[in-house]
Write a structure and sequence with these properties.
The complex is a heterodimer. Chain A is an all-beta fold. In chain A, 0% of the residues lie in helices and 50% in strands. By secondary structure, chain B is mostly beta strands. Chain B is globular, with a radius of gyration of 14 Å.
Chain lengths: 106, 121
């Protein structure tokens, strides 16, 4: 089983600031990594797939990078609607998710 | 427009069998490459993939829960059903169904809003 470890657990930032979220895999997942945004009571939303590709309709302020075991989701300038929980997910060896990073307003 | 919606009991007793239904629209599970998975999230914990059914009726299960899970589909009703036997309080979770497609990299592109299932006597 591939374990994904996300850091930090909580990130406190203000609108307009840059957010950097990390996801580390216990073994290489190549580029088979995605990022999701999740708000309470809503369906999770696919943001980034294959480590660096934005999903349909996702704003350009969201970007992903990395390969192998270390990945980053960057939000270049936070909008009020970006405060949510973010999960990474791998599909290199079946499916597993990280524990999530809560992005909260400072 | 693709939508998925989970339905089922909000409360089940320990040892009971849980049956959840995912009703979807905007796609057909008979279309080559289409896959529907069930994923759960216990309160305060990570998302956990449970099972998947493919357009060709192939079925796949989480290794740790394989003996307790059954997934099936009714293409005519646009539904996927998950049963989980011998429910325990630790199975309390929000259950989601999600669609993927092999042509889009097999990522969970569309999700339902989830249904909370509490296991308690």
């Amino acid at each position: 089983e591939i374990v994904l470890t996300q850091s930090p657990a909580t990130l406190s930032l203000s609108p307009g600031e840059r957010a950097t979220l990390s996801c580390r895999a216990s073994q290489s997942v190549s580029s088979y990594l995605a990022w999701y945004q999740h708000k309470p009571g809503q369906a999770p939303r696919l943001l980034i797939y294959d480590a660096s590709n934005r999903a349909t309709g996702i704003p350009a302020r969201f970007s992903g990078s990395g390969s192998g075991t270390d990945f980053t989701l960057t939000i270049s300038s936070l909008e009020p609607e970006d405060f949510a929980i973010y999960y990474c997910q791998q599909r290199s060896n079946w499916y597993s998710f990280g524990q999530g990073t809560k992005l909260e307003i400072k | 427009q693709v939508t998925l919606k989970e339905s089922g009991p909000a409360l089940v007793k320990p040892t009971q069998t849980l049956t959840l239904t995912c009703t979807f629209s905007g796609f057909s599970l008979s279309t080559r490459g289409t896959r529907v998975s069930w994923i759960r999230q216990p309160p305060g914990k990570a998302l956990e993939w449970l099972a998947r059914i493919d357009w060709d009726d192939k079925k796949f299960y989480s290794t740790s829960l394989k003996t307790r899970l059954t997934i099936s589909k009714d293409t005519s009703k646009n539904q996927v059903v998950l049963t989980m036997t011998n429910m325990d309080p630790v199975d309390t979770a929000t259950f989601y169904c999600a669609r993927a497609h092999t042509s889009q990299g097999d990522w969970f592109e569309f999700w339902g809003q989830g249904t909370l299932v509490t296991v308690s006597s």
